[in-house]
Amino acid sequence: MKATVSKTVILSNRDRGFESHPLRQPNLPEQSAISGPKKSVSLVLAGFGHVGKAFFALLQEKLGPLRKRYGLDLSLRAILKSDGGFMPEGSLLEHRIVDLLACQTGGPPLWRAGLTVESALKKIDPGILVECTPSSLQTGEPGLSYIRAALENGWNVVTANKGPLVAAFRSLLNLAREKRLSLMFSGAAAAALPTLDVGLYSLAGAEVCSIEGILNGTSNYVLTRMGEGATFKEALEDAQAKGIAEPNPALDVEGWDTAAKLLLIANSVMGLELTLGDIKVKGITKISPASIEGSKKEGKALKLIGKISRAAGRWSAQVSPVAIKSGHPLFNVDGTNKGITFHTDTMGSVTITGGKSDPRGAAAALLKDIIHTFVSLP
User: Fold this and answer.
1) Side-chain half-sphere CA neighbours of 253 within 13 A
2) What pLDDT sits at residue 3?
3) CATH number of the domain enclosing 216
4) Active-site option among 261, 303, 307, 356
């Protein structure tokens, strides 16, 4: 399902440090392709799990369009893992993933055991660090140290990693501004669902009074399957078998992934200073088939909702299963789809739904942020 957006006029405001403007025209005609010299950009990829591999494959697929439409010549100079990395003389995009993995176990001399993110950043002319490591929501590590090192050494950053931003949101943004660099995180704030694009730019000038969203595709899939008659255990096993859920899905089904995304969106769009401790979190692990059936009989749908609103001058944020009525804008958001509703003072309620909930969707969000870092279209 493709994301649908109610408001689409988005202006550039890169200096805000959150996220650059999306393209005004989703499909540029051939005659609008950028002409002139190409801008060469070095990339360093930290993390080579599902999202990192999807980003690598997407870069290889999109190299031609990136050069033709945006004037960007991207060169992936290094890929870092926890125990070393790949760093050839040229671009890693000339190689296949399977060949790189073979190198790590004794193939051609591309693999450098012990190579660190920090050392790679110092050996390559600054460009963009693409940060995709699994990091703690409590400490932000190891991604937090990687992002700080990148900014301190003149590198822009795009990340799909929620941990560093949850742990040190304001300090990272302040460091990026101080260094006059970009720190972008579409991939960490619901990935292919353009939450920050709409909240920061489409709604510019409006006060966002409250936000509610279905922000985790795994939990939404499990609840959808339970609505079809499966037990929680059966639905979760199905999600894992299809690659929708991680082998350890605790952050998803216990509500913490939703809480982290809500925090990033609210702090970015509303200018708040939320921490995870400010959000009341209840997941879906205790939901029974009887609860699902009871909601259906009342004409409602049970969804894991992240919500922030203000009452009596105080902000309240929570994540919990909520039975929503059929008239609710998120009622029909099923399966792995996500959705978010912004309630504003001047533009009414704006809802966007859809967006791929898989590594390719997260990779696409990373690529979008890279384009917006360097390209400003009329």
Assistant:
1) 21
2) 47
3) 3.30.360.10
4) 261
